[in-house]
């Protein structure tokens, strides 16, 4: 799995406006729909919210990774959004989130989905990298930070 092949400037938003978990999920989904990566928004939303009901995808350190498996995508797709304001996401550490990465993959493919989630969670173990993402001035900077090996 290669983040460079999944993330593009079309799938990065530096200023999410949502104030709730559901609003953020909707905004992230809109990014994927607008970039042509999701064919059925309602179906994709349903699978992400269903996954979220089972267990929150709010991780630690202000990061949430809402995800799901849906036939409204043909391959693994992902987007990243940064919120100007912290949003309560029922995180493991009870801290609000500002960095959101949504990924969707086809129901029939498990490998890439798990690999992506593992790769993303490794990236954010670095406090420096998280801070770099939050202070990024452009979509290109976000992609560069996420795809750089060090950190």
From TrEMBL:
- Is Cell membrane included in the keywords of this UniProt record? no
In this protein, which residues make up the domain named PTS EIIA type-2? Answer: 5-149
Instruction: Please tell me whether the keyword Transport is annotated for this protein.
Output: yes
Pfam families in UniProt:
PTS_EIIA_2
* Superkingdom assignment: Bacteria
| Record keywords, A-Z | Sugar transport, Transport
**What is this protein's name?**
PTS sugar transporter subunit IIA
Q: What organism is recorded for this protein? A: Candidatus Gallitreponema excrementavium
């Amino acid at each position: 799995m290669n983040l460079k092949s999944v993330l593009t400037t079309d799938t990065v938003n530096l200023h999410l406006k949502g104030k709730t978990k559901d609003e953020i999920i909707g905004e992230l989904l809109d990014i994927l729909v607008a970039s042509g990566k999701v064919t059925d928004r309602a179906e994709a939303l349903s699978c992400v919210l269903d996954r979220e009901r089972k267990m929150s995808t709010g991780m630690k350190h202000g990061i949430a990774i809402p995800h799901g498996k849906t036939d409204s995508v043909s391959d693994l797709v992902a987007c990243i959004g940064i919120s100007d304001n912290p949003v309560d996401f029922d995180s493991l550490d009870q801290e609000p989130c500002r960095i959101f990465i949504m990924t969707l993959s086809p129901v029939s493919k498990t490998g890439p989905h798990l690999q992506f989630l593992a790769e993303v969670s490794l990236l954010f173990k670095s406090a420096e990298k998280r801070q770099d993402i939050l202070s990024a001035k452009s979509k290109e900077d976000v992609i560069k930070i996420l795809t750089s090996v060090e950190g």
